[in-house]
Write a structure and sequence with these properties.
The complex is a heterodimer of chains A (114) and B (128).
Chain A (H helix, E strand, L loop, with lengths): L6 H19 L7 H22 L6 E3 L15 H25 L1 H5 L5
Chain B lengths: L4 H13 L13 H24 L3 E3 L8 E2 L3 E2 H33 L1 H17 L2
Antiparallel strand pairs in B: 2-3
The chains are: A mainly alpha (114), B mainly alpha (128).
């Protein structure tokens, strides 16, 4: 391990998901207001949920301080967790939207239909 | 009860987001599409998790997990996490999408809310 065993893959995961969407899947997810609103809601819920796991007073998950920047947000959430969460949720949403093509589901319910 | 902390949080996430299905999310009603969205992502993140656990990038406090472990020392709660969090995200997105016309209406006024997306589709439709 190089010493940034969490930071480096977290940044790479975000870059990989963004690249996969822009180059391969091209669902247009990033152009949708619904996506960005959803990510703000997810972020708002990430703080209490993730924070419960990371709070240093009684941590469920403990991180090696040598493997990350050490920057922590509310409830001692490592900044890397926000990248991790972004990549995890965005990747699932890209696949969700990607499958909408052809099935007609997005057009029946999605933003394009109106 | 302490051993169930992580597990209970995951169950709470599912419980809190479940009503979104009835507020327009329509995710559980498409189980195959949901599985195809969540499972590949969970698989990749489980690999990352296994590597991080092996390298001790993160560890789990034995007081707050059940102790049930999958191969490669992955706590069963981690598997749940990688399934539950994307499902919550998809439910949120589906629900927001269903409410988007109203959202757009608030942001830009009711007429713009209905007019814009349709005009965006027009050239697409004409090309067929």
């Amino acid at each position: 391990m190089t010493g940034l065993g969490y930071t480096v893959p977290a940044v790479a995961a975000v870059a990989a998901v963004i690249a996969a969407e822009l180059v391969f899947f091209r669902t247009g997810l990033f152009r949708r207001l619904a996506y960005w609103v959803s990510m703000l809601i997810v972020l708002a819920f990430q703080i209490p949920v993730d924070g419960w796991l990371t709070k240093l007073s009684a941590p469920v998950v403990e991180y090696s301080s040598r493997q990350m920047t050490g920057a922590r947000g509310p409830l001692d959430i490592p900044v890397e967790d926000f990248l991790f969460g972004f990549a995890l949720v965005t990747a699932a949403l890209v696949l969700w939207e990607w499958q909408a093509r052809g099935s007609g589901e997005a057009n029946a319910e999605g933003t394009d239909a109106r | 009860m302490n051993h169930f902390q992580y597990l209970i949080i995951m169950v709470c996430c599912l419980a809190v987001t479940a009503p979104l299905e009835f507020l327009g999310a329509r995710a559980y009603r498409q189980p195959l599409r949901l599985a195809r969205s969540v499972l590949p992502v969970a698989a990749v993140f489980l690999v990352w998790d296994a590597i991080a656990i092996a390298a001790r990038v993160w560890t789990f406090n034995p007081r707050y997990v059940t102790g049930v472990r999958l191969p490669l020392h992955i706590p069963v709660e981690e598997l749940l996490f990688f399934l539950v969090v994307p499902v919550c995200g998809i439910l949120t997105y589906g629900c927001v999408q269903a409410l988007t016309p109203r959202l757009r209406g608030w942001l830009t006024g009711p007429a713009a809310g209905r007019g814009r997306p349709r005009s965006r589709r027009e050239p697409h439709r004409a090309s067929r």
